[in-house]
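User: Hey, my collaborator sent me this sequence without any context and asked if I could get a structure. I don't really work with proteins. Can you help?
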Amino acid sequence: MSDPVKLLVVEDDPVLRDIMGDACAALGYPAALAATPVDAIGVLAQHDSIRLALVDVVLPGGISGFALAQQLRDARPELEVLLLSGYGKTLTLPPGFTGRVLAKPLPLEQLRAVLSEHLGAA
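Assistant: No problem. I've predicted the 3D structure and written it out in structure-token form, which is a compact way to encode the shape of the chain:
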């Protein structure tokens, strides 16, 4: 049986992590969840089927979401990584960053559109 998990959610806040996981599952996209950058690297190694990672910008352990995004892409170059931030317009992007940053909290319809865009129909 193939692994249905195509999505990794990295969020240190346990309530937000669970909400994101539940919302993704309700939309038909079961997600693997990680609380830390170290957890995220381990989860990615366990699921060859993961094609998209949603990563919080502010994470514990001294590794930012920006740095984790690069580590995830280094481990799996074809992986798409979208960053999530609750800081809105006050967020300072690192020099040379060209990725996409979405505002948290992500409304359900926006989450559905993002997942469909990157993973196809559920």
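In plain terms: Helices lie at 14-26, 37-46, 65-75, 108-119. You can pass these tokens on to your collaborator as they are.
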